[in-house]
Structure formats: structure tokens, C-alpha cells
């Protein structure tokens, strides 16, 4: 037990805080306490919440162990019965995992809704991506009873009164559960973090009086005088947890000693069991294993096993009870999975259905019925693929970049001057533009597979919704989420790492490709093609097609598109193939097609207009071995652009199928 309360010990070290360059606001709070601010300066009406029932074991634990400890720490103090505070909340106990003891939770919900909330930017593990961690050595620090180092202003402690075991107490230090505790603690510790990162900052900020401990000689860059430069450390703070990174094991050992000195200098205390003072290259921090040797976030083995057990348990319960499970147990699995999503990238993809079921209007003690999608997702959680249990901390620069865009009728993408594009099918046409933008990304990746497989790919996208969805791999929309899963499967199949960058619509070079109208993008009616296939087939390739109108699995397209075997049929070899084609009716294109058939002596079935006056007609007839004439009817053709059919003039002239056989 400490000789003096924790916050009193820190208050006695104000000179030390001033020496490390703490700002005046921090010094004032450490001396006088944190103020409580109510919305509109209106104090809520008086209330006295009823106590929660507790067990005999919990009462004994409180009276014999926890109450004396918190009193000694200065976290709480007893309130005499004659004081009669206006606001009294209740408290309850929750078990500490794996310890066999409890943690006291003061229920401050009633006070939180009436108080002004302060916001602060926290530094999460994601920041490691920009800190050059691969090959580094780590030291971890966990402060003990961290919040209790910061006092509440004496005049405001009456707002934090609670009853437990028929006794009245008040919080004298920052309480767990108060909405502003994280803000105030982070703001105060920011001064220590600044000193760790730049020890010389204390002089620039006017710190004086006592001299703070400075880093050892291992921190001085070679060739620099220690009087000219004082090297700091790379530190990642998150509330009371701190991860320090060093360039070498020797520097880490020296840095650990200096970090201890600074903590003791300002009056803070460390947790004896949770700190990792011995330098390591594999450290568990904020629930995730940080592998500094390979530069990976990894799911801890014990957490992975627990997650699988929870999923299997829910799956068994659902099978026995007609898909009914406890809502609280389902929420536990989701919360636990969220804690490791940084190392388990597809976690959000397989939680969306579960969260939808949690949203059912049932109390936490009730049961919810799992959807079919949730059952499939639980199967995934019960047997998480090993390859998904780690993620790179830092993804290198993109090897490939392309722009993508979608419009009402079509989509387009541009990569290094190559264009991929296509039209929406009848089913796709009615979808929301955000869905079309997301599907356009998948179509573009599928079209550019030779360039993007096994690479880091940067997508330039002008749709903010698509950018957000790809950034977090989740969407509240069921249709968008289903499309996102299809995209994820494509990424995994071809080992593609995706990065997204937003560009203004005016700067998106794929915008024009997504709005292009191709008046030759029509195809022969499937029934008519089946007749030709029976007569001249089987054909090997559809020469002029797209992924929407191809009659054969192998096809050549005008632009890059999903499934295309080649772009621009006139640049592909035809020799040795039994080809089918319905070429555009541009006379120059038809002339080039006939010339290619002659040069390569290709066996081909061509569906062309009956234009005997054209120069290519006589050349084609010299090679023809059979003709099939069709009536002059637009019913022979089908447009793949359903939204634009009214704008198209489908061929009305007489059409003939010409067979060339060498």
C-alpha cells in the first residue's frame, strides 16, 4: 500500500512535471483537480439509485480487500451519513478474467448524460504502420491504477457518490466509467509522451527548477554532441499502455532504464506484472501480438482458440434450439472478435450478419434467432483459416495504380493507358450507384488480373462511400456487404492487397470510360447462335464480345473486361481455331476482318450484313463455303445495354452467316 494517495504523490511532484515541460493546464489540474462541467451549466435533479444485489463472496472481497486498497490509494473516501449527498449512484462487481477476483464498476450513466463530453484523438496500433517497426526491439509499460493518479476537484467530488455494501463513498480520483476520464488522463500523459519523444522540448517550453532525467548516450546519433541533440524514443501511447520501440537491443535496455527513471520522476507507478522491461521482438500489446521480426500483427494463440470455442458453442446451441441463442453470448463473441480485427482483416466481413441479429428487439438476457447468414459466419469463426490470422503492419507502396468509375449505365477503369469497361446487365442496372461503384472495382480487378495478381494495388476512386467501405471492409447495407464479400474472395484468390485513394470526379480519368456508349455492343440471339453452333460448331472462341454477351467461355473483347481472353480480336491469333464472330458494322472494321481471315487462313463463322456493294463482300465470297440468310429483323439481335435500348438502332438490314473453312 502506498504511504500517500497516488494523486497526492503526483501533486507533490509538480516541479518535476514543470521540468519536463508540462503545460499550465496540466499543472493546474494536478494541483487542484479535474473540474466537472455540466451541459448548459445545469446540475441534474437529485437522485438516489437502488443498490444492485451482491453475493456474500463479493461483500467479503470488498470489505476485506478492495475497500482498504482503494482508500489507501486515495481513489475513494467514505461519506458520513449526515452529509446527505444529492446524487447517489450504484455500483456492481464484474469478474476479472483469469484472476478469480472482481473489479468494482461505478454506474455513472445517469451523470454522464448530463455532462459535457470532451473529445480527444487517441493513438492506436494502426499508427505502427508509419513508425518503421520491422526489425525493431520493444519495451512495454502498463501504469498501475492509472486513473487514480489524477484527482477530482474537491468541490465536484460530491457528484461521484455511490453506495456499495450499505456504505456511502465518493470518488476522489478519476473514476472508471466517467465519460471524460480517458480525455483528461490522455491530455495529462501527453506531456510525458512529448518528453519521451523529444527530451529537449522541456527547455523550449520553459521547464525549469529541477533537472529531469535525460536519455543515455546510446540515444545520441553518431557524430552529434549530446549537448547539441538529445535523442528521444518512438512511443505509442494508449491511455495507460505504452509501447516503446528501439533500433537495437542495447538501445532498448538503456531506454528501459531511462523510461523507469522518468516514470518515477513524475510520481507515476508501474504495474509489476504487466510491464515488459526485457527487450523483445514479439510483444502482446492491446490484445494483439506485434511481431517485429516479420512486421506482422498476429492473433494471439489463446485468443484464437477462445474465439473458436465461443463460435462452436453458439453453433451447437443454435442447432439444439432452432437457431435460438443467448443475445448476451452472441454479443460477447462479436466484442471479442472486434478486439483482434487489426490482425484478422476479414473479421468485419463475418460479423455483419451477427450484429444484425443482435439488433433484434430482445433484452440482453433474452434469446435471438440466428439468420442463415449468421450460421454460415459462425462456421467461419469456428474454423478460422490460418492464413487470415496475421496482417502486415506496413504495406509497401503500390506496384500498380488504376482509376475506376461507374455511371448509371456502365463502368470503366484505366490502367497505364489500358481501358476496361462494360455495361450493366438488366439486374445490375436497378442497383444503387454505391453498389455499382463497388462492383466496378471488382470488375476492374478481374479485367486487369495479369497486372494486379500478387501485388499491392492502389485504386483511385471518386466515391467516398466506396472508399470508406474498402477501408474498413464492412457496410451496414446488406447488398453492399454481399458485394464486398465477393470482392474479398477475389482479392484472396489472387493475393491482391488493396489500397484506396480518393480523387475528385473532375480528375478521375476513368470517368469518360464509364460514360462511353458503344453502339456496336449487341449480340446474336442465343437461339440463332445455337443453330449456327449445331451447324458449324463447336466453336472455340467468340471474336467480338464482352462478359455480358459472349456466347462462348473463351472470347475476345474490345476493352478489358472480366473473363476476357484477349483485347482487340484483330490483334489475336485466329489460325488453328474454329472461331465465331459478329463484328461491328463499320466498313473499315469489316474490311480488316476479311483481310485477317485471308492472311491467317482462319476457319470462322461470321455474321455480317448483306452488303454486296461493299469492297469486302467479294473477297469474303471467294473464301465462303456456306451461307445462311436471315430475314431483315431486329429480333435477331439483343443489346446488352438495357437502359439504352431506345437510343440504339439495332441492325434492320438483311443479315447473312458466312462460313469460311480452310
From TrEMBL:
It comes from the Eukaryota. Residues 75-290 form the Reverse transcriptase domain. PROSITE patterns: RT_POL. It holds the Pfam family RVT_1. PANTHER family: REVERSE TRANSCRIPTASE DOMAIN-CONTAINING PROTEIN, RIBONUCLEASE H. This is Reverse transcriptase domain-containing protein. It comes from Volvox africanus.
